[in-house]
Amino acid sequence: MIRWSIKSIFTEGMSMLASVCGVAFSFLLVMFFSAMFSGESDRITAYPSKVNADVWVMQKGVANMHMAMSQLWDWKEDRVRAIDGVAAVESILYLNAVFNAGGRDWFTYIVGLTGRTEYSGPWSMHSGKRIPENGEVVIPEVLSRLTDMNIGDSVNIVDRQFTIVGLSAETFSMANSIVFVSYADLAEIMSSQGSVSYLMVRADESVAPAELVKRIGDQLDKVNVLTQDVFINNDHHMAMQMGVEIIAMMSVIGSALAVLIVGFTSHALISRRQRELAIAKALGFRNRDIYMSVLVLTMILTLSGFLLSILFTTLLFPLINQAVPAVSLKFTLESTLDTAVIAIMIAALAALWPARQVVKVDPLTVFHG
Amino acid sequence: MNMFFNLIIKRFKTEPVRTLFVVVAIASVISVVLILEGFREGIYQQIRHMVISRGADVIVSQAGIKNMIASRSVLPQLSRMDVEEISGVIDAHPITTLPVIYNKDNRRTPVFILVFDTLGGPEVIEKGRSIKESREIVIDKSLSTIYGLQPGDDFIVSDFNFKVAGISKDTAAFFAPFAFATYDDLIDLYFESDIVGDLSTLPLLSFLLVKIEAGYEAEFIASEIESRIPAADAWLPNMLAENDVEMSRSMLGAVFQLMIIIAYIISVLVISLIMFSSIQNRKYELAVFKAMGFSFFRLASAVVVEVLLITLLAMPVASIMASVFSVIIHEAAPVYLLLVTEPGPLLRTLVASLSFALFGALLSFKSIAALEPVMAFRS
Q1: Claim to verify: residue B220 and residue B299 sit in the same structural domain
Q2: Are the C-beta atoms of A317 and A331 separated by less than 8 Å?
Q3: Do B143 and B258 fall within a single domain?
Q4: Range of the domain at B204
Q5: B53 inside domain
Q6: Whether B196 and A72 lie within 8 Å, measured CB to CB
């Protein structure tokens, strides 16, 4: 009977192909959401990851960067620099703001760079100047492509006009692109002279980051000190958690669609082949064998759809990332495994209805005209 | 064509279960499109609502700031007095927005705290009451759902302990819930958490909610404010709301478009699958028509009519399915609002679904063309 299932798939080529494609796109919808949140979560942590400090110092009560606001007195930077085991300290002023370019609004991280910019500035440049001076701005290269803005053009941040002097690479994100300006400009926009948002500390070889966290925490009041790993993980975790419900929702919807498609295909196939099934029953095949053949059929359809969806994601996601730079899709093994589990459940669920039909098949049908 | 139409109706009547199944199958696919469209509309609506429901006739922001949600605006302290001196202005109520990350049970959620004095607080309190005592806060329903918070519970941000006074409804936007606190508590929060020593560097006045006297035009007052206070911009609430919607369109438009395209591809595949199966089941019937001299064009037209009819029948079912799903989602995760029955998206989905249904029907034409009239004479 299992051979019958496999043979049926090949004899009903077009219908099976449409079904497998339908299942694949249902899974693709699920994977798309997961990949989008995963991709955006990575982009959200691009700045702290690339700065690659060992320790981050911020306002008490703040533990991340995305959608957060942190302010510290700037003298705390000198205090940290004097601590034993500190190799370097750089600071930034930071603001979430709407950036207007090319007639469109973009939600951005605006980073105000202070005097020391060895690692707090753009880590990779597409073209132009890396460190902006007063009245200058470095914007992501992708943003310049999307808005048709180039070096020498003017953009507005809040009520100020800035001249684009550089295009940075790897700094664009749908949720928060990174724009670099001078500390003085941002402090004026924020009315925040005398304060910084984050201190990024690099440890010398004599001390482990965790030990340096303790030393800074012991010597400075009212600050939060975290290792790079914890700081990045906080942002990444939060971004993913923001999408948990929506990913779950789309998983349910996509899975329901896949069940429907597989169930319908199996049902249609069995309806058309009732006489064959009746012959099988008349020949003495037990219901159990026929059930198994239906399950195998749904399993093949579902798993083929699943494999096709992986092929789609492998081929399509890089193309989408290229063609639609506003969207960042990241294909993860975790989401694939989640979808695989869903696929197996779908196959079993989708088999229920056609299996019920099989039980109803009367062996006498074979003798009908 | 009338004969085919009658035949389709007759088939619907004689095979009600199959018809119902086909309608539900197509409705399911359309409902996915409606859910995605509703999700997008919901995001825009939440943003609009958060701005408009603050209750102002005119909203004043820092010069150059044209967004209210997720934007930092800092107005000079004296601007309130300057605005209130303009004739036609009754009051200028201050508000401040403060983004914080709420952290509990190893889960972090970005929250916008909206600090208000006399206007701008929550519009509808679903549970509990408004703020009456010091250190009280009203939180959005989504925070209550995620963290199981109830009136009377602690709500700790930046090491400052608020007590939840009430749970507000429809106070989330941009994937983030809002919470409402008073100015006295904001000052206490700044002092106790010792964020920085100088209070003047912290946002204390982000926006002014201006109420105007009857007989004055809001546009006139807005232009008066802008001409007299260079450090400020004045907006009609719906204009400010539309700016926020535009910003979210820039951010999310491409993503939603991609997802909707995927959903439409699924609908084409499902419809073609259904029609292919339907033609396979009726191939003897169609062969009889061919034997009777009906052209391919007439048979194909009949399939098109059938598909369009089924899609039209599926549309209300899809709306109901999407509505039920949107209620379930909103109850489970109130931070999301799905507006699945907005006329614009509904009409757009209907037109697109009919077009894609036609495309799905086209894929089945090959099967009709391949039918041999001689098949009519086989058993």
Answers
A1: no
A2: yes
A3: no
A4: 58-235
A5: no
A6: yes
- Whether residues B323 and B201 share a domain: the answer is no
CB B240 within 8 A of CB B232: no
B252: which strand partners?
none
Q: Do B99 and B20 fall within a single domain?
A: no
Is residue B52, in this structure, part of any structural domain at all? no
8 Å CB contact of A193 and B201: yes
- Averaged pLDDT score across all residues of chain A: 83
Q: What is the pLDDT of residues A272-293, one digit of tens each?
A: 666 777 777 777 777 777 777 7
pLDDT of residue A266: 72
Mean pLDDT of B24-38: 88
> What residues of chain B, 122 to 151, have a C-beta less than 8 Å from chain A?
none
CA distance A232 to A244: 18
Q: Name the percent of chain A lying above pLDDT 90.
A: 29
Cβ contact, residue pair B246, A98, below 8 Å:
no
Chain B residues touching A260 at Cβ < 8 A:
25, 28, 270
What is residue B287's predicted lDDT score, i.e. its pLDDT? 79
CA separation for the pair A326, A143 (Å, rounded): 9
Considering the domain boundaries, does residue B230 fall inside one? Answer: yes
The residues near A308 (Cβ < 8 Å, ≥ 6 apart) are A20, A21, A23, A24
The pLDDT value given to residue B378 = 59
Chain B interface includes A173 (CB < 8 A): no
User: How many interface pairs between A and B have CB atoms less than 8 angstroms apart?
Assistant: 206
Q: Do B158 and A59 touch (CB under 8 A)?
A: yes
Q: Phi and psi of B293, rounded to 5°?
A: 100, 10
Query: What sign results for the dihedral spanned by CA atoms B371, B372, B376, B379?
Result: negative
B216 and B80, same structural domain? yes
Q: Which residues of chain A have pLDDT under 50?
A: 369
Residues B209 and B90 placed together within one structural domain of the fold:
yes
- Please tell me the pTM assigned to this model: 0.79
When pLDDT is cut at 50, 70 and 90, the band that residue B196 belongs to is low
**A221 contact residues in B (CB cutoff 8 A):** 194
Q: Indicate whether B197 pLDDT > 60.
A: no
Whether B176 and B76 map to the same domain: the answer is yes
How many structural domains does chain B have? 2
